[in-house]
């Protein structure tokens, strides 16, 4: 694909990703007002929030695996319409627990049909460094959309009604659908898998791709545990601080760390291209684990130190996200790229589910959130799980991608430049 066409495709899909993500955090912003309006318990309100991810989990293996068999553009459009219907239904019809569960789960299923299928649209049309850079930008767009979702929902809630906070993302998703219909051409898969839908055995036999997905599991475990507990930890560290000391509030620190992480995703992807993917991810994940452990051990004694370490840990924590995703996709057998992405996404979601729970369990076992040592233990265990990602790369040694580190690392002279080719020159070799 010509460079100009590659850039246009990347811009269109990144813009569409941001637009479809504008409803991602809407319920999180509106949780307390809707809980009180509908007379829900905290558990019921949390159940509505979880319904989004339940819808995603149920839909992602089917919708993403389908991209091996039908045009990914068609799957993306179906996903976008599901997301628009979920948000629009919430805006117009939600009036309590049952309807909110239904429409929020539908919106989550829509994300399953847009996020990874959109990544597939890039991966199928680009190769080498252009593919790696596009994946980094697309992954960063997820963060842009998430942060924008918080701000948009909060602004609309202050200026208008909560129903409009769901209605605007529905309209934005329809706009994204128009962009994809106009600027992304249809392109059915060139190779169709001989196996049945949801048969992941060929994917599991590809150690080069699966290892990157295991690193993604460790990355997601750390990322979602910290996003769930960081504000609570910073509030603990701030207890007893003199008001007006000039340091930002915990929620502002968390937002700042998330914004910095958007830029680090792109920078980490570029480092993988220039220096080698394994080398970059090994260094970044190890630094993230070390900084996270330091945050738990040292941050409880000083709010200023906690803020500083949190703002350093945030971008380190996200910096390898695009690199491990591109590693999994680039080493996938082209016939099973959709199934590979489905497995990759499910492993990432599993890390996101279990990470926050495990963090809280360690916190409770070590004495509770009021004990400084308990936070130290929780962050130390989290760092140990994070290091499982670099350990998997060291032990299994998956391949880098063509063009990474000027082809120095992980590829022999017989390797071609096609995506999904293993170091031995065989597609999807195990």
Automatic annotation (TrEMBL):
Residues 418-430 have a biased composition (Low complexity). It is found in: Cell membrane. Residues 9-401 form the Major facilitator superfamily (MFS) profile domain. Residues 404-430 are annotated as: Disordered. The chain crosses the membrane at residues 9-31, 43-63, 75-94, 100-123, 135-152, 164-184, 224-243, 249-269, 281-298, 341-363, 375-396. The keyword Coiled coil does not apply. One of its GO terms (molecular function) is transmembrane transporter activity. One of its GO terms (cellular component) is plasma membrane. It is a multi-pass membrane protein. InterPro entries: MFS (IPR011701), MFS_dom (IPR020846), MFS_Efflux_Transporters (IPR050189), MFS_trans_sf (IPR036259). Keywords: Cell membrane, Membrane, Transmembrane, Transmembrane helix. This is MFS transporter. It comes from Siccirubricoccus deserti.
